[in-house]
Amino acid sequence: MAAQPQGCFIKLYCDDGKEEEYELHSIHYKLHPTGVAVCTFNTPKNMNCLAINQQWEMFALLDHMRRDGDVKVAIWTGSGKAFNAGADLRGDGTIYVPKHARKSMLARGMGPVQGDFVLKPHTIAFWDFPKPSICAVNGLAVGGAANMALTNQHDLVICSTDARFMYPFPKLGFTPELGSSYMLPYLIGLARTKEVFYLSDWFSAEQAKEWGLVNKVVAPDQLLPEAMQLAERLCLLHPAAVQQSKKILNSHIRSKLEQILDDESAVINASLLATGGPPQVGKYMKKQDELIKQLKAKL
């Protein structure tokens, strides 16, 4: 999948009730006439990693799609050969979302928080998005991005046969985040979760499907057509029934989620302290460079 052109506009919402148009820079967005909104991580040069502007635009898109009555179902995917490479440890600090809009978003809990390695507001925002959400994993998904794809931030997950997953936490001094310390054992069992987290081995889309993390695996050229077909089926259902079903199915875990994320935050900070400090430290940068080389070798 080639990088898609930019020029995609959404609405930002401020505290005074005003709306303003915003051009996305890190994510391509297209709303189809059927009501299916496709959100594509679109910074393939850095393997679509979670740079700060991309994080802000994810919040902005969730806010926009929730409020837009024409959006019935959301699809999230990636451009190039990676879904998302996870944390941006190099720290590209460029932010295009206007400061006054960011202030309003933060007041609503819709923005990243400095020093929050578990991405608490992000995780809650995806869990609380009321409309059906489909993750279409087109390539590599690493660390936090693997959690974004596999730990119920979306309702359904479709993978290309090119999709690969890996949790590099021990290599970087991190511990499980985005609620994965609870969700992965809940979904695939404690023993397998420890193997996945401790050993940092790659696992395939077919393995993820076998473990119950993925609904369907298709050929690369069928990924978006399959996701679109599934999304369009959801669009034909009564939206209130689908949204209320999502609410009750998520509610039992959602009631525990904030405490889970707080516990993860305490542990990840203790781990970073014990291993030499936050990932801005030079040795973590070198480890990430090594990891990126491994990722590119997989492409």
Automatic annotation (TrEMBL):
The record's section on Pfam families has:
ECH_1
**Signal sequence coordinates:** none
Keyword list (alphabetical) reads: Isomerase, Peroxisome
Q: Where in the cell is it found?
A: Peroxisome
The answer to keyword Nuclease applying to this record is no
What the entry lists under Gene3D superfamilies is as follows: 2-enoyl-CoA Hydratase, Chain A, domain 1
Record-given protein name: 3-hydroxyisobutyryl-CoA hydrolase
The uppermost taxa in this organism's lineage are: Eukaryota, Sar, Alveolata, Dinophyceae, Prorocentrales
